[in-house]
């Protein structure tokens, strides 16, 4: 009897990630797929994670269409980043930034692909909902302004879901029995971009300026892609810097949860504040100077 129970538990552990992944897809919560697949590697093994990945991509493609299948496939790359960087004990800040980029890019391509299927413009649903709310005020915002707001939404969503996927995966990996050693996580307040980021940001900015000057039909898409690569890491660093200031007593907010709620409440203005804070910290390195004193 105990042997049958053990076999039953093994079967449940093997199939649970695939069932959970398909349930998330059915509910439309695709953005949590990376943590399900990555956690499956540590808790259930690579075959279980592979089956969950294949079932998710094939199932969404067959049931909901090409846009959803490609979306699930791109989110699988975020899961791969989580797995490899946890196994090889890479910095969590790098893991978070890379996952945020992949998730934001996946969301952007999904919006573009789904709009092509329906014949609508990207973010048209967001445009219509916001325009209807502005009609009562007698103002109709231009489409380009809402498109930029949609970009801010993708950046913020990428950051949030990357953090959530990282936390869930790390918790499950620590609870599971495996041969890997999970690296301890430093406090968020001390996360900082390396000085090499400055060189990369300058090169990407130069490429963005060049592409914007060329007569390309999709030049704006390339500009937004470059903006993702530069702004997402700065947003993460800006949040960490503000959290550091709050912990040091320089701000009226000390709670991380309250800081997150304020960021959400003030969106999209808070996103600009995070980017500016990240740039200031990258230039002046206030935290490094404060800790060295």
Concise structural overview:
The protein has 293 residues and is an all-alpha fold. Helices cover 78% and strands 0% of the residues. It folds into 2 domains: 1-184; 186-293, no CATH class.
Summary keywords:
disordered N terminus, mainly alpha, 2 domains
Task: Give structural notes.
It is built from 12 helices and no strands. The chain has about 290 residues and is an all-alpha fold. The chain folds into 2 domains: about 180 residues; about 110 residues, no CATH class. Helix 9 crosses helix 11. The N terminus is likely disordered.
Fold topology:
Blueprint: H1 2-27, H2 33-43, H3 46-64, H4 66-87, H5 92-118, H6 124-135, H7 143-175, H8 196-213, H9 219-247, H10 256-265, H11 269-284, H12 286-292
Radius of gyration: 21 Å
| Strand coverage percent | under 5%
Helix amount: over 70%
Give the number of DSSP strands.
0
Taking the alpha carbons of the first and last residues, their distance comes to 64 Å
Poorly predicted spans: 1-5
The helix-strand sequence is HHHHHHHHHHHH
Structural class: mainly alpha
């Amino acid at each position: 009897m105990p042997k049958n129970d053990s076999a039953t538990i093994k079967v449940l552990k093997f199939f649970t990630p695939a069932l959970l992944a398909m349930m998330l897809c059915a509910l439309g919560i695709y953005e949590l797929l990376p943590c399900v697949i990555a956690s499956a590697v540590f808790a259930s093994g690579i075959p279980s994670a592979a089956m969950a990945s294949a079932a998710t991509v094939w199932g969404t493609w067959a049931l909901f269409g090409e846009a959803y299948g490609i979306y699930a496939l791109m989110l699988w790359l975020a899961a791969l980043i989580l797995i490899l960087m946890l196994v090889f004990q890479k910095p969590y800040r790098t893991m978070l930034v890379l996952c945020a980029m992949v998730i934001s890019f996946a969301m952007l391509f999904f919006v573009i692909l789904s709009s092509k299927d329906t014949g609508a413009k990207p973010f048209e649903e967001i445009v219509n909902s916001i325009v209807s709310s502005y009609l009562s005020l007698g103002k109709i915002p231009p489409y380009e302004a809402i498109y930029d707001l949609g970009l801010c939404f993708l950046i913020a969503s990428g950051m949030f879901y990357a953090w959530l996927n990282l936390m869930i995966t790390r918790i499950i990996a620590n609870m599971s029995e495996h041969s890997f050693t999970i690296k301890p996580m430093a406090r968020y307040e001390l996360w900082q971009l390396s000085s090499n980021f400055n060189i990369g940001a300058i090169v990407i900015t130069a490429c963005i300026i060049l592409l914007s000057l060329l007569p390309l039909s999709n030049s704006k898409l390339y500009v937004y892609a470059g903006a993702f690569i530069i702004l997402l890491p700065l947003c993460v660093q800006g949040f960490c810097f503000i959290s550091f200031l709050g912990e040091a007593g320089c701000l009226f907010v000390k709670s991380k949860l309250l800081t997150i709620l304020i960021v959400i409440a003030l969106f999209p203005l808070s996103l600009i504040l995070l980017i500016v804070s990240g740039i200031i910290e990258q230039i002046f390195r206030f935290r490094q100077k404060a800790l060295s004193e």
